[in-house]
Design a protein that fits this description.
This protein has 6 helices and 11 strands. It has 188 residues and is α+β, with helices and mostly antiparallel strands. It has one domain: Glutaredoxin (3-Layer(aba) Sandwich), CATH 3.40.30.
Length: 188
């Protein structure tokens, strides 16, 4: 699946000076999917929302912890996508001490919709958000996706977090790395 072409409104250069995650002093910067994905092999993971329990306690810290192991498997970057604005994503990453994984604030949900992962979550008062998934993206093409079971618009799900873990991703990357090495040895 080709990654949809999207321009993200990001904040750069903000510093926390008002407390509570509020930041000032920066500027808006447009960042495109080409800027993020072209000529790179990246891991992308998406989640329902910043500051939410599973996202904050497991998923984001888990990918941060496994960042170097993912890079060792030929990954250039690790991105976290959420249908939140850049102020929220930046404040959340600052509050979590996340410095390696990069946030992608998909405030309008355009990337998420283009990936077929936009869901309605009225039960939590979220509105439109991302279903939880992870993907390997090679030069703008999602070559493997791990999508949590039960995708729905009912909002009464148990918010599964089994398939899109960094451990699952790392296992997959090691497996395809081993296959490539094995194929390379056979062709010699």
């Amino acid at each position: 699946m080709k990654i949809p072409r999207v321009i993200f409104k990001t904040r750069v250069g903000d510093h926390e000076s008002l407390g509570g995650g509020c930041a000032i002093g920066g500027a808006w910067k447009n960042v495109s999917t080409d800027d993020l994905f072209k000529g790179k092999r990246v891991v992308v993971f998406s989640l329902p929302g910043a500051y939410t329990p599973t996202c904050s306690s497991q998923q984001v810290p888990g990918y941060e912890e496994k960042y170097e192991a993912l890079k060792a498997q030929g990954i250039d970057e690790v991105y976290c996508v959420s249908v939140n604005d850049s102020f929220v994503m930046n404040a959340w990453f600052r509050s979590q001490n996340i410095t390696k994984v990069k946030p992608i604030a998909d405030g309008e949900g355009k990337l998420t919709a283009g990936m077929g992962m936009l869901v309605y979550k009225p039960g939590q008062g979220f509105g439109m958000r991302s279903w939880r998934y992870s993907a390997v993206v090679d030069n703008g093409e999602a070559i493997k996706m791990f999508i949590e079971a039960g995708r729905n618009d009912e909002s009464n799900d148990n918010d599964p977090y089994i398939q899109s873990t960094p451990e699952t991703m790392l296992e997959y990357l090691k497996k395809i790395g081993s296959l490539k090495k094995s194929q390379s040895r056979r062709s010699e």
